[in-house]
TrEMBL record:
It comes from the Bacteria. This protein is involved in the repair of mismatches in DNA. It is required for dam-dependent methyl-directed DNA mismatch repair. May act as a 'molecular matchmaker', a protein that promotes the formation of a stable complex between two or more DNA-binding proteins in an ATP-dependent manner without itself being part of a final effector complex. Residues 212-329 form the DNA mismatch repair protein S5 domain. Belongs to the DNA mismatch repair MutL/HexB family. GO terms for biological process: mismatch repair. The lineage of its organism: Bacteria, Pseudomonadati, Pseudomonadota, Gammaproteobacteria, Alteromonadales. The keyword DNA repair applies. This is DNA mismatch repair protein MutL. Keywords: DNA damage, DNA repair, Endonuclease, Hydrolase, Nuclease. It comes from Ferrimonas lipolytica. GO terms for molecular function: ATP binding; ATP hydrolysis activity; ATP-dependent DNA damage sensor activity; endonuclease activity; mismatched DNA binding. One of its GO terms (cellular component) is mismatch repair complex.
Length: 341
């Protein structure tokens, strides 16, 4: 075969292979877009584990009619315009790939209305075979993305979907991770018309405890103590809880870097070392939030953005270690300032 440029739909489907693994990855991308749009309320509806339909509604700033079609195009983003932007990224999105990818493997409807717009508009794309259609619709300020028949035109992918229940469990897990990062946002999740999760905004420590309990379980929330540590460059806050005879809470392990959940060996190592040095025999669960100058961390390592690279890995590791050691030695439970033990 001679060298040829791939047709756009095929290029998008290949890109979708990286970003859109299963319904839960669609939920992740769509919800992150809501957050980037400044939404405070995000409602998710799922039908049949997401393989039939996935609907995500937000009350964010919306998309202008003139940009609806562009929003579905590949490499179209309102979040990065230069390499400098990319090096100091704070938004979740920056690749401009999610909507293009998802719309290339589903029937996607994007409905939106901006604050000052007199009308709402809707764009529809079906596997991106046909041109995007834009028409008026009824919609409050904000955006709704409806993804129907995911992978209908990529049978190999569709075959990889698991039972509805399994796919839905992945969606719930995805939502947990995001809800833990954004305590001020109201989330709801429905499956087959039934309300399954509802996370209310937390504005004080009591509400924080309730939200932590509804997301991570009350066993974790009841045992959790708070950490708060910072220096000129870094800050670490969050919760740590230890396993005991009555409950195993060490399965709860979430680590965030600038609001983005990551898996990082460095973090697990610091946690293990802190426990060891403190002479704690049990394993620990944690929900930790690291804040770092975005210039000091590279998030553009993997399309799904689960990995990060710290420019000063050793320094970050040692900071986390010290913060955990302090936390362990001063253990204060969430609801009162008295030592938990
Ligand atoms: P990225 O998030 O990387 O920019 P996406 O394909 O996810 O790429 O989205 C493309 C663009 O569409 C975004 O940059 C944004 O301008 C717009 N957009 C997508 N979802 C929403 C939403 N829920 N509210 C407002 N704008 C949105
Ligand atoms: Mg996005």
């Amino acid at each position: 075969m001679a060298i040829q440029i791939l047709p756009p739909q095929l290029a998008n489907q290949i890109a979708a292979g990286e970003v859109v693994e299963r319904p839960a990855s669609v939920v992740k991308e769509l919800v992150e877009n809501c957050l980037d749009a400044g939404a405070t309320k995000i409602d998710i509806e799922v039908e049949k584990g997401g393989s039939k339909a996935l609907i995500v509604r937000d009350n964010g700033k919306g998309i202008a009619k003139s940009e609806l079609e562009l929003a579905l195009a590949r490499h179209a983003t309102s979040k990065v315009a230069s390499l400098a932007d990319l090096e100091s990224i704070l938004s979740f999105g920056f690749r401009g790939e999610a909507l293009a990818s998802i719309s290339s493997v589903s029937r996607l409807t994007l409905s939106s209305r901006q604050q000052d717009a007199s009308e709402a508009w809707q764009a529809y794309a079906e596997g991106r075979d046909m041109a995007v259609k834009v028409q008026p619709t009824a919609h409050p300020v904000g955006t709704t993305v409806e993804v129907v028949d995911l992978f209908f035109n990529t049978p190999a992918r569709r075959r990889f979907l698991r039972a509805d229940k399994t796919e839905f469990t992945h969606i719930e897990e995805q939502l947990k991770r995001i809800a833990l990062a954004k305590e001020e946002i109201h989330f709801s999740l429905r499956h087959n018309d039934k309300l399954v999760r509802q996370y209310r905004p937390a504005r004080n420590d009591r509400q924080r405890q309730q939200r932590l309990a509804s997301i991570c379980g009350s066993a974790f929330a009841d045992r959790a103590f708070m950490l708060r540590s910072s220096n000129d460059d870094l800050a670490l806050t969050g919760f740590l809880a230890l396993d005991d005879d009555k409950a195993r809470v060490s399965e709860v392990q979430y680590f965030y870097v600038n609001g983005r959940v990551v898996r990082d060996k460095l973090v697990n190592h610091a946690v293990r070392q802190a426990l060891e040095e403190a002479g704690v025999a049990q394993a620990a669960g944690f929900v930790l939030y690291l804040t770092v100058d975005p210039h000091e961390v590279d998030v553009n390592v993997h399309p799904a953005k689960h990995e990060v690279r710290f420019h000063q890995a050793r320094y970050v590791h040692d900071f986390i270690l010290t913060a955990l050691q302090q936390g362990l030695s001063q253990r204060t439970s969430l609801l009162n300032d008295e030592p938990a033990l």
